[in-house]
Amino acid sequence: MQSNPFKSDTVSSNLNLKQSVLETKAFQNDLSSKTINLLDSAVLDSLNANYIAPDSLIVFGYKQEWSQFRTVWKNDFDYQNKLIQPLPYDSLYTVLKKVEVVFPGKKVIRTNPDWLIGVLLISFLLFASVRLIFNKYLAQLLQSTINYSTFTRSFRERYFNLFHASFRLDLVFSLVLGLFGYQFLNTFKISLGASKSYYTYLICLGIVFGYFLSKKIVYYVIGILTESKAEVQEYLFSMTVYNRVLGLFLLPVTATIAFVPLTQVEPILYAGLVVIAIFYLMSLLRGGKIFLKKHFSISYLILYLCTLEFLPLILIYVLLSN
């Protein structure tokens, strides 16, 4: 009995496992003096080819790890008559002394550490609480990214506390962006010198916190020095709005990379980078609109963009590339 056509086998092995040879004393002595490696494909193929009981099922899969054998299906080979040998025992019987007949299992594509599930679970619970309790605020937040009048109204009505949706979404953004950074480093085998995987995640999380906190501090200082504190506060609030929405978009991306059994996750990572780039450009355009509407100096605007936006990103890219 067979399913999809991908399997066959060769009996050409250095290990002769025919029934007549197995019963000889020479073979038993040779077996007791040697160790048979069941990871050897030739040994497995010979065991499967010569010792399949009448009640056995021959499996052919599209992938080799789903099949009993390693070589491709041969149309001119009579598997039913030439491969299956009727034996007086069932397929669970151990054929050789000291040798347990096993079949290759399905390979695991990727493994995820336990803490990763906890991070995603916390992020989804925070988002679910916002969606359930602060649904009106969430809709207003999403609209603020494309509608400037809605954004200005949100800016006038802004408030912050540990129980409001704004704090929860800020926490989701930090957790998810740090996780995305960890997945990026792990996929491309970039080491930060951490001995444990969660140490690498904590480093990524610290970079996210440190980058945006230092960025806000520098913006506040420059706003005070240039007497443009109101414009800087509005721009920083705009950046926070885009970050909160970005965290919601990155949440399914990180969950897909973690749990969907993909052979290659690089396209999903690149899609996440594209999403980050889009929100970053939208944030810069909104910031330029804020400063220009306030008759802010264009030279100051160029200085802000070069020193506080582009230069840190170039430094991070250089560090990761090295």
Description:
The chain is mainly α. It has two domains: 1-107, no CATH class; 114-321, no CATH class. It is built from twelve helices and no strands. The chain has helices at 19-22, 25-33, 41-50, 79-82, 114-133, 135-144, 148-156, 165-187, 197-225, 229-259, 266-293, 298-321. α8 crosses α10 and α9 (197-225) packs antiparallel against α10. It is globular. The model is unreliable at 1-19 and 84-102 (pLDDT under 50).
> Overall pLDDT, averaged?
75
Q: Count the helices. How many?
A: 12
Instruction: Give the tally of structural domains.
Output: 2
Q: Structural class per helix/strand content? A: mainly alpha
**How far do the termini sit from each other?**
55 Å
C-alpha geometry: globular
Element order: H for helix, E for strand: HHHHHHHHHHHH
Question: What attributes does this structure have?
Answer:
globular, disordered N terminus, 2 domains, 12 helices, about 325 residues, mainly alpha
Topology:
Layout: H1 19-22, H2 25-33, H3 41-50, H4 79-82, H5 114-133, H6 135-144, H7 148-156, H8 165-187, H9 197-225, H10 229-259, H11 266-293, H12 298-321
Helix pairs in contact: 5-6, 5-8, 5-10, 6-7, 8-9, 8-10, 9-10, 10-11
Short description:
By secondary structure, the protein is mainly α. The protein contains twelve helices and no strands.
